[in-house]
Design a protein that fits this description.
With 120 residues, this protein is α+β, with helices and mostly antiparallel strands. The protein has two helices and two strands.
Length: 120
């Protein structure tokens, strides 16, 4: 009986370990080799662009809507979103300051309760 339990335990462990190992997220092997997208080739805000690896900037596909870009992305490409690029030119490298009301939302007052219907 102990031998059967040992064999079943080992078999179950091996059966579970295979798929669990395959599901680990791994970074693409060439992710460190990817070149950054030039600032003048980035899509405008609200649009996206498919960026194909090892293709010059002048030969990249034009900017399009994000749904189409995500749907049509090839295996050797990535989608560049137009509004995910932090423009440090405006702040001269300094972190941007938030408006005073943003921190903790202290100036926001709760909404008044709805009026009661007339009793009658």
């Amino acid at each position: 009986m102990r031998l059967l339990n040992a064999v079943l335990s080992i078999g179950l462990t091996v059966a579970i370990a295979g798929p669990a190992t395959a599901q680990r997220l791994q970074a693409p092997k060439d992710s460190a080799k990817r070149t950054p997208v030039p600032a003048d080739a980035r899509p405008p805000k609200g649009m996206c662009r498919i960026w194909i690896d090892n293709v010059p900037a002048a030969q990249q596909p034009a900017a399009t809507d994000c749904t189409t870009a995500v749907k049509n992305r090839p295996a050797n490409g990535r989608v560049i979103f137009g509004d995910d690029f932090a423009d440090t030119n405006k702040s001269n490298g300094k972190p941007l300051k938030l408006p005073p009301g943003v921190k903790g939302f202290t100036s926001v007052k709760p909404a008044p309760p709805p009026p009661k219907p007339p009793q009658g």
